[in-house]
Input
Amino acid sequence: MPILPADYDASWLDAPQTPGDWSYRREAARSMAGFGPPGTENLLVLICERGTNQITLLVAGEVASPVLMTVRTETQQRILTARQSEMEMPFLAATFAANDRLLDAMAITKGRFAVEVEGFEPLYIPAWAEVTRVIEDCR
Output
């Protein structure tokens, strides 16, 4: 089991879950899972690009310059740099190799993981099967 930093704060595990549901879609070269309230735009999206074996984590939002994104799971946390994506919808993006162990921690965490982006409300996302499906599609 990974060693968590001394300043790891587990209080996010008790915060109310962000309202919403997961959806999953598979296309020829990619698969994606989106999370958000029914009938609205996704708050968070995971995309597997099978040709490059990379997974991109997208969080709804728009910024002028790169910002810090913290991903927290029961066993790991990591601070990433998120940049504005080139997608139609405004999303902040961070990319992982498909074999990154943080992805595994997101899939098997104690019911949820958190994504915190500077200047935005934190997201407390349930770790449903759609997360695992996208990860496995890239491996």
In short: The chain is about 10% helix and 40% strand. The helical segments are 101-108, 129-137. Residues 32 and 47 are 4 Å apart (CA to CA). The chain has one domain: 19-137.
